[in-house]
């Protein structure tokens, strides 16, 4: 295995009853590369993400992080090894403030798990990093609101902020801009573009909007019925009939 | 204020209420020299600590346990057995506490690791089963625990009513061993309460709240939630054990009905809900209200009932009969939950926010 491969899946498969949601997907991802994952609704994109970040256990196959087999590890262990998720279905700490949501992710990134002897406020470094991230996603004005009270678009931004705060080496964005209003989308896309500048980051992006994919992706892989159907340069993939078909399937489901 | 770990009770009404309660408790021996009122005050202290330790589990971490009073019982029986068996020395007292703590923590850890991975309801059932079994065990081990009769025992001399610290009086009150016991309980409860306040406001405590809010996301951030939950369970068990030890020191008696009964567990649940879950200050308010109501409601009802029958209102007199005090307490509980689902503390904080 090449040293520069940060994430690899080998024959990764999961079966729900009789339904094979991810079917023997073998793929390698490298630092400095943004891979867009496309495919119609129900293709298995989110399920593939869940297998990589450990929310689901594979029926067969394996996941490697920097060459280490992590297939038997749970989501917490994989997160501490650098896997970050921004979930498709917003997944926050609803009753806690926006600032506290981010601060908890910063705290996790710094490995402060069991410190119970001093007040959290005394860890000013964690607080100020959280504030900086809030600034980055344009949520400073809502810092004291409960996460549950945010608009959908702001919740999506907070979702992304939690992953950024975790300082992962593998970033997994699952439709980060879905349902956002037009003026909110650039905040998130700029953020992803800035992450891309850093050569050490491996970025996976599930995205339905083809213009977004075209502008950000270095590479596209296509999932269909749980199978890896195509993998290559954006221009070549977008032109291929298989993507045209997937894209059409999408146009039906998401009229926008 | 770092003594409050940067988490003062917010809201003027709440600050005022807490200040009054804490002040009364702090000078209770001088305010109410009677044995009954001092007993009520000491009971509030011990229950406030017990309820606060329960809130660490229920309100902060979102774990429903019915075995919390069992840990209180372990502490109480630890002290009782040691003082009964070894005589009323400080060494025996400390040995009792030091022996009880690891028993509680080991039990808590076993319950936690056995069942915290699964659903809340399963964990609650396991704790209920373990607590019931423990209760039966304590009643059966006659030679050790005194069975259903429990154990009366002597405490070290300076904590006994007959002991005089000074020969005179201070503010008209004799400084006897009872007053000293009260302040021992007061200081220990205050220190342990502040320690709990520190824990819930520490980085660890914030993770517990994150787990309560969304365990799935907490895990995705890298927090090993089983360890955090287990640690919270052990910590709260340890504090409950210390509360039990203090209760035993105060009462000079431990039996199933005062230290293990599931009805105490229900009382604790009521206190945490009335006071307000997820805020340790709720424990003080809930315990004060509940213990006062339980001790004085009967008397109040008796007076009201007599007045009603004097006025010829037989139905009212019947309803207000002192034996109906539990019904009235239940009614108060229902009203409290209905009108203040976030507890008194949440309600008072909310009021302040509304006016500001
Ligand atoms: N926990 C589960 N149990 C049973 N079936 C599941 C489960 N999770 C996903 N599936 C099924 O697996 C298939 C793939 O779902 P997945 O959510 O991965 O699709 P997706 O590519 O992310 O789609 P979308 O674009 O709509 O987000 C679907 O048919 C779905 O119903
Ligand atoms: Mg999906």
Any descriptors?
heterodimer, A: 256 residues, Rossmann fold, 3 domains, six-stranded mixed sheet, 36% helix, B: 356 residues, mainly alpha, ABC transporter involved in vitamin B12 uptake, BtuC, two-stranded antiparallel sheet, 75% helix, globular, binds magnesium ion
How much of the polypeptide of chain B forms β-strand, as a percent range? under 5%
Q: What fraction strand of chain A?
A: 15-25%
Radius of gyration of chain A: 18 Å
The percentage helix of chain A is: 25-40%
Low-confidence stretches of chain B: none
User: What is the CATH C-level name of chain B?
Assistant: Mainly Alpha
* Largest binding interface between chains: A-B, 37 and 30 residues
CA-CA gap between termini of chain A: 42 Å
How are the strands of the biggest sheet of chain B laid out side by side?
1-4
Strand tally of chain A is 10
Give the helix/strand class of chain B.
mainly alpha
The tally of structural domains of chain A comes to 3
How helix-rich are the residues of chain B, as a percent range? Answer: over 70%
H and E order of chain A: EEEHEEHEHHHEHEHEEHH
Tell me which ligands are bound: adenosine-5'-triphosphate, magnesium ion
């Amino acid at each position: 295995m090449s040293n520069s491969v940060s994430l690899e899946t080998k024959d990764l498969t999961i079966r729900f009853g009789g339904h094979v949601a991810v079917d023997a997907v073998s793929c390698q991802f490298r630092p400095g590369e943004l891979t867009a994952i496309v495919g119609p609704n129900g293709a298995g994109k989110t399920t593939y993400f869940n297998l990589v970040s450990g929310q689901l256990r594979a029926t067969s196959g394996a996941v490697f992080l920097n060459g280490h087999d992590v297939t038997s590890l749970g989501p917490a262990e994989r997160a501490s090894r650098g896997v970050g998720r921004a979930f498709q279905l917003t997944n926050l700490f609803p009753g806690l403030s926006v600032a506290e949501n981010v601060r908890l992710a910063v705290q996790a990134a710094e490995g402060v798990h069991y410190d119970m002897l001093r007040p959290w406020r005394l860890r000013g470094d964690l607080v100020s990093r959280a504030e900086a991230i809030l600034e980055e996603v344009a949520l400073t004005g809502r810092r004291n609101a409960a996460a549950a009270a945010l608009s959908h678009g702001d919740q999506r931004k907070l979702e992304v902020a939690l992953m950024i705060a975790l300082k992962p080496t593998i970033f997994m964005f699952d439709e980060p801009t879905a349902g956002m209003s037009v003026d909110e989308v650039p905040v998130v896309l700029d953020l992803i573009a800035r992450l891309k500048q850093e050569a050490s980051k491996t970025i996976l992006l599930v995205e339905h909007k083809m213009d977004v994919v075209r502008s950000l992706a270095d590479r596209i892989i296509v999932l269909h019925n749980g199978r890896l159907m195509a993998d290559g340069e954006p221009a070549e993939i977008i032109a291929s009939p298989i993507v045209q078909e997937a894209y059409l399937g999408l146009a039906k489901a998401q009229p926008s | 204020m770092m003594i409050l770990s940067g988490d003062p009770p917010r809201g003027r009404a709440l600050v005022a209420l807490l200040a009054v309660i804490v002040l009364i408790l702090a000078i209770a021996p001088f305010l109410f020299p009677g044995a009954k009122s001092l007993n009520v005050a000491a009971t509030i202290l011990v229950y406030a600590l017990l309820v606060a330790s329960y809130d660490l589990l229920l309100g902060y971490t979102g774990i429903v346990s019915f075995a919390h009073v069992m840990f209180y019982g372990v502490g109480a029986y630890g002290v009782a057995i040691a003082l009964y068996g070894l005589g009323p020395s400080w060494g025996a007292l400390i040995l009792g506490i030091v022996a009880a703590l690891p028993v509680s923590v080991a039990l808590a850890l076993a319950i936690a690791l056995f069942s915290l991975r699964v659903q809340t309801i399963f964990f609650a059932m396991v704790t209920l089963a373990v607590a019931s079994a423990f209760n039966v065990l304590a009643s059966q081990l006659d030679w050790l625990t005194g069975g259903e009769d429990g154990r009366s025992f002597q405490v070290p001399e300076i904590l006994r009513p007959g002991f005089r610290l000074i020969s005179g009086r201070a503010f008209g009150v004799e400084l006897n061993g009872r007053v000293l016991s009260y302040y021992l309980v007061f200081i220990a409860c205050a220190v342990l309460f502040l320690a709990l306040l520190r824990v819930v406001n520490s980085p660890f405590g914030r993770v517990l709240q994150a787990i309560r809010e969304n365990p799935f996301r907490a895990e995705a951030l890298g927090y090993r939630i089983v360890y955090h939950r287990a640690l919270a369970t052990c910590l709260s068990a340890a504090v409950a054990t210390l509360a039990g030890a203090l209760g035993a020191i105060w009462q000079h008696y431990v039996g199933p009905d005062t230290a293990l009964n599931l009805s105490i567990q229900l009382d604790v649940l009521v206190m945490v809900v009335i006071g307000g879950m997820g805020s340790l200050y709720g424990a003080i308010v809930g315990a004060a209200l509940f213990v006062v109501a339980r001790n004085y409601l009967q008397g109040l009802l008796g007076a009201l009932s007599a007045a009603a029958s004097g006025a010829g209102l037989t139905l009212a007199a019947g309803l207000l009969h002192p034996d109906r005090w539990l019904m009235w307490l239940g009614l108060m509980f229902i009203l409290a939950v209905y009108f203040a689902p976030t507890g008194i503390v949440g309600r008072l904080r909310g009021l302040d926010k509304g006016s500001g």
